[in-house]
């Protein structure tokens, strides 16, 4: 994949400002694309946009579907513009409260009522009815299973599918036919919610394309155990006869954790997937490339080898390495996706084989500046003087503190002295974000991506996620008025100075 020297910003959709309890696909999303254009940027990187679960702290990396969109991202004003709501109905649902952080519970409550009213008003015109039917046909390969899964989940008290009646758990043909008939209204409503999401997403994608902004999506490597994907495709996952994982995903013990990390996702049966020419993965990547221009694959190493933990293990320390599909998988993908528009998340402990495959298939990796200022700095691959042209450079990711928060709370005295030596001046809390942003822009790495929090110089209060914690994440929102002309001008100047300015500006 050959990309021009360029830059972009990392910002989840939910972090956008706005009047509703969480950011969505309304005018603020379009305005942010315009801001990126004004600041000479080329890319907007986001986090996964699938449905989220309150029980999982609304993490975008834990979803009941690898294909569906999150209805909470649907914007009510855009529904009103298409005739689904009257002005007075929209005004009834609007709150005077200013949501400075995402309130997913409030968003879920108000939007569920809005969706019910929109469904009652469907179709507002013949054009919408025809578009809905076309959407159902186009996405039938995943939509039918997802809609039925969601309807059954609601009917059965949101219990995991492994605890459903045996005939539904095991997808008995007669039981599924009866369920579809009995839950026809509920399944069609679920399809309708997806229709609303994808209509609004397509408008955002079109607006970004017109503005010269490419979208970089994020695709988790594993899928959730309690998902329509696992329920509908059990043969692709290492499960027992009752649907319980025989092995779960994780990572082994390391310097940071004596017991490793036990994620709980079922691991893949790669032999079964290979026998189908990886068709499920091909469909999944194809679907993502319908949404995005590039796709970041989380935990890329899992394609080469992965840590499998036997069922019943209390920690990941009892796991072992298994071989993934490796080169065979990427040769299969090349038949469908010339140039492989994929970005590999290759952070953490990476083997030489992972790097070899990335280079062989021209897949860029990630370089994170916050990882550079530690031991053995001169040879550290994240240090700017060791960067590769083909990679993407970041100040940090969604899993890190902000640059300022890192400097104030995590970087020790030795690291601060090292940073001072490298910069040639003493860094301060007020300016360290500018130092690191400039460092990223000056890197030889082909693309630089900066979390918006670092462009704004915000501290730890703006951190979006702390790994291994299960509460209070994914809530940060852009403070109102932050996306100023002055900030756009500063970014544009830096992009121009370092050869990253988008063409045509």
Q: How many whole angstroms does the radius of gyration measure?
A: 23 Å
Number of helices: 19
Distance between the termini: 24 Å
Main sheet attributes: strand count, strand direction, barrel closure: 8 strands, parallel
Strand order of the largest sheet: 9-6-3-2-1-12-11-10
Shape: globular
On the 0-100 scale, what is the average pLDDT?
Answer: 97
By secondary-structure content and strand pairing, the structural class works out as alpha/beta
What is the strand content?
5-15%
List low-confidence stretches.
none
Oligomer: single chain
Give the fraction of residues assigned to helices.
25-40%
How many beta-strand segments? Answer: 12
Explain this structure.
With 505 residues, the protein is an alpha/beta fold. The radius of gyration is 23 Å and the shape is globular. The chain has a domain at 233-340. It is 40% helix and 10% strand. The chain is built from 19 helices and 12 strands. It has helices spanning 27-38, 76-81, 87-93, 104-120, 126-138, 140-155, 166-169, 173-182, 184-210, 228-232, 270-275, 279-291, 327-334, 352-360, 403-409, 413-423, 432-442, 452-456, 485-497; strands at residues 6-10, 43-45, 214-219, 247-251, 261-266, 294-297, 305-310, 320-323, 342-344, 366-368, 392-394, 447-451. The mean pLDDT is 97. The strands form 2 sheets. The chain has an 8-stranded parallel β-sheet with strand order 9-6-3-2-1-12-11-10. The longest helix is centred in the middle third of the chain and has 27 residues, at 184-210. β1, α1 and β2 (43-45) form a beta-alpha-beta unit.
């Amino acid at each position: 994949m050959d990309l021009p020297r360029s830059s972009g910003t990392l910002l989840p959709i939910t972090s956008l400002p706005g009047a509703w309890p969480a950011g969505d696909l309304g005018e603020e999303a379009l305005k942010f694309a315009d801001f990126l254009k004004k600041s000479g940027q080329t890319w907007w990187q986001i986090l996964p946009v699938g449905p989220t679960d309150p029980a999982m702290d609304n993490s975008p990396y834990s979803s009941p579907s690898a294909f569906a969109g999150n209805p909470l991202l649907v914007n009510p004003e855009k529904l009103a513009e298409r005739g689904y709501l009257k002005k007075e109905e929209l005004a009834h649902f609007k709150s005077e409260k200013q949501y400075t952080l995402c309130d997913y519970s409030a968003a879920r409550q108000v939007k569920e009522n809005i969706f019910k009213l929109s469904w009652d008003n469907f179709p507002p015109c013949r054009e919408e009815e025809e578009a809905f039917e076309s959407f159902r046909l186009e996405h039938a390969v995943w939509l039918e299973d997802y809609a039925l899964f969601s309807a059954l989940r609601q009917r059965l008290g949101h219990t995991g599918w492994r605890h459903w009646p045996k005939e539904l758990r095991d997808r008995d043909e007669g039981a599924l036919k009866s369920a579809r008939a009995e839950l026809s209204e509920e399944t069609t409503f679920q399809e309708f919610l997806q229709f609303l999401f994808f209509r609004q997403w397509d408008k955002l994608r079109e607006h970004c394309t017109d503005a010269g902004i490419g979208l970089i999506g994020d695709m988790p490597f594993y899928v959730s155990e309690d998902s329509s994907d696992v329920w509908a495709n059990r043969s692709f996952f290492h499960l027992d006869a009752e649907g319980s994982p025989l092995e779960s995903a994780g990572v082994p013990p390391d310097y940071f954790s004596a017991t490793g990390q036990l994620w709980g996702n079922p691991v893949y049966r790669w032999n079964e997937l290979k026998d189908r020419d990886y068709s499920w993965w091909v469909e999944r990547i194809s679907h993502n490339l319908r949404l995005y221009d590039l796709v970041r694959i989380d935990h890329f190493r899992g394609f080469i080898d992965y840590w499998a933990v036997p069922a019943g293990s209390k920690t990941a320390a009892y796991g072992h390495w298994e071989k993934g599909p490796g080169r065979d998988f990427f040769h299969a993908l090349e038949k469908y996706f010339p140039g492989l528009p994929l970005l590999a998340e290759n952070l953490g402990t990476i083997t030489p084989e992972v790097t070899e495959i990335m280079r062989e298939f021209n897949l860029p990796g990630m370089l994170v500046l916050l990882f550079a200022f530690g031991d053995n700095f001169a040879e550290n691959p994240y240090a700017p003087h060791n960067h590769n042209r083909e990679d993407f450079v970041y100040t940090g990711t969604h899993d890190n503190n902000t640059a300022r928060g890192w400097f104030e709370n995590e970087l020790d005295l030795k690291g601060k002295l090292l940073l001072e030596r490298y910069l040639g001046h003493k860094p301060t809390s007020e300016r360290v974000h500018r130092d690191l942003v400039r460092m990223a822009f000056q890197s030889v790495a082909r693309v630089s991506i900066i979390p918006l929090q670092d462009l704004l110089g915000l501290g730890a209060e703006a951190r979006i996620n702390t790994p291994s914690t299960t509460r209070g994440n994914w809530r940060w929102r852009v403070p109102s008025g932050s996306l100023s002309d002055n900030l756009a001008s500063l970014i544009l100047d830096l992009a121009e100075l370092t050869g990253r300015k988008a063409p045509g500006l």
